């Protein structure tokens, strides 16, 4: 029931997603009468759909803490409960982001080895696509959080984007080793001790996002949120300038008519609906947040992302990778201890 | 002697800046023989130029601390010394940013009431232009720093950009009052106690940069640096996509030929050389940093920015504004004290 155009857009989005999600069934949680009426209009979707009724929903401007305490019967809460109970493989919502994260964290809990979940998203770049996290779940992050984000981003890139050995970069104000604050310098040192080391590119800067210098961009939630929105804002500014330029003279208008086909391709490639669906990573359950203002096409993309994560066993893979990582970090710590012990013996001799 | 194309680009840039800087004289610091040879090629510039010779210069990759200690005879140091001694009204350099800030801070010192200088730059927006600071001088900032940045940005916007009452925004992850970390929430509360209060917009988000929601964007140096480079990178990505699109088919190429005039105007408006020149604000002297890779046109813009700041008495105005601000903050603190005193008396009764 969340988002600007629910439930119509949600049901229409599911119908579009149907073809990209083979053997998927849909569980709609919300106002039964409205959802059933909509399903009548989507005859292919109806037989693979179930509706769980609730009149309650989380308002778009509700405080997360209030939504968590008071919204036990809300459509958002019941949809997340369905993931916790195993009735659903994943949940997709276009509702209130803060409430969704708070409820998902409370109901699903974090995966073993993950201190805090992160919000991740896919960005278009000059070379293809990059996944960036965190985008706002954690305003301040320590080195451990950042290392865990790197693991989660890597597993996402492998399983959902299909990259064999994605490269990882830490977002910083310069690429030299001494740049930035303590947390990222510590995270960089820790990553060099892990199995991710060969794919760890080091520090990257803001302009590397659009260049696609790395496949996984790791940052704290404050910086990531500002960077993502700055990139989106700049992209919109350019689209607007382009529109004005093509309208600025008769010749330019004619030029547009000729180049229209080529520009339609560009528009498709940069369509924000293609990149709709922010993934909540690090939870014991798959949860994807759609933009509240998207349409059915955008929502179907968010569903497809969640479906891919679920069908590729995304969380099992994160769990496995974290176990490997922790073993490697423990071994590195043991080695450092042994070496310093040997060092002191030598000093005694 | 700094930047990729010095000293040629520097001398040529000064010649271009000459017309926009009435009654300006130029002091060139560096390799006398090379500079004199270049001045021969710019006959109108030569009579208003002086050359101060030094064979030393700061390498582009030198550590700031090393440049500060070892570079006492460097062209950068001597140029800043000339501002300190009053021989020059302002200094412009295309050299090593970290070294320039370290030397400028050491030689010029900060203005009274300013704890830390900040780097500011002008950005193109949908509505016109916005000034943003800090862009990397201070990775972590407390509320006092941010309030001082707001004052410096406001004075810059008034004196250099000519806005009567520029609006100020604090860059955050959301616009609601409870968003963000402590430092920005404190800075917002403090700004509401100052004479800037009527022009304080509150929190803004990354997408507000391109929208031009406010005239002055205040942020810490880490976030500002990432946001600026992200915006620049996204702009380049779009320019690149645009180029590819116009080349993707014969019709698109023809379309470009027709729309070329309109696109040349757009290119001029978005020309990064127009926005060249990062201002070091809060020092007892005017210091502007040009991009190292710019050309004479870009460098002339950096000179024009410095000239404008000097001829409008920029630093005197910051000093005055800070005095007013401090009086207002002191009055607010007194008032809060009085009120709590009255409160406790009432409680006793």
TrEMBL record, chains A, B:
One of its GO terms (molecular function) is phosphate:acyl-[acyl carrier protein] acyltransferase activity. The keyword Lipid metabolism applies. GO terms for cellular component: cytoplasm. Its EC number is 2.3.1.274. Its main location: cytoplasm. Keywords: Acyltransferase, Cytoplasm, Lipid biosynthesis, Lipid metabolism, Phospholipid biosynthesis, Phospholipid metabolism, Transferase. This is Phosphate acyltransferase. It comes from Niveispirillum lacus. The gene is plsX.
């Amino acid at each position: 029931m969340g988002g600007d155009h629910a439930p119509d857009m949600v049901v229409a989005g599911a119908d579009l997603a149907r073809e990209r999600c083979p053997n998927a069934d849909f569980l709609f949680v919300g106002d039964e009468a409205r959802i059933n009426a909509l399903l009548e209009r989507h005859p292919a979707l109806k037989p693979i759909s179930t509706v769980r009724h609730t009149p309650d929903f989380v308002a778009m401007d509700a405080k997360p803490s209030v939504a968590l305490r008071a919204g036990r019967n809300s459509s958002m809460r019941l949809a997340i409960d369905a993931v916790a109970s195993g009735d659903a493989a994943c949940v997709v919502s276009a509702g209130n982001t803060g409430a969704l994260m708070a409820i998902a964290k409370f109901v699903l809990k974090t995966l073993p080895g993950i201190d805090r979940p992160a919000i991740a998203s896919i960005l278009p770049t000059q070379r293809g696509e990059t996944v960036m996290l965190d985008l706002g779940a954690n305003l301040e992050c320590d080195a451990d959080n950042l290392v865990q984000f790197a693991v989660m981003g890597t597993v996402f890139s492998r399983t959902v984007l299909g990259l064999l050995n994605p490269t990882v970069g830490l977002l910083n104000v310069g690429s030299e080793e001494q740049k930035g604050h303590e947390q990222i310098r510590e995270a960089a040192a820790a990553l060099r001790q892990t199995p991710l080391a060969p794919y760890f590119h080091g520090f990257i800067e803001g302009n590397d996002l659009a260049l696609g210098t790395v496949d996984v961009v790791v940052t704290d939630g404050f910086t990531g949120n500002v960077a993502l929105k700055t990139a989106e804002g700049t992209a919109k500014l350019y689209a607007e300038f382009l529109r004005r330029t093509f309208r600025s003279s008769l010749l330019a208008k004619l030029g547009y008519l000729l180049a229209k086909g080529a520009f339609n391709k560009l528009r498709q490639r940069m369509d924000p609906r293609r990149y709709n669906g922010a993934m909540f990573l690090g939870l014991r359950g798959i949860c994807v947040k759609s933009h509240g203002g998207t349409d059915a096409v955008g929502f179907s993309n968010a569903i497809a992302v969640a479906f891919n994560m679920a069908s590729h066993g995304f969380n099992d893979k994160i769990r496995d990778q974290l176990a490997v990582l922790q073993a490697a970090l423990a071994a590195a710590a043991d080695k450092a201890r042994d070496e310093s012990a040997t060092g002191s013996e030598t000093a005694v001799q």
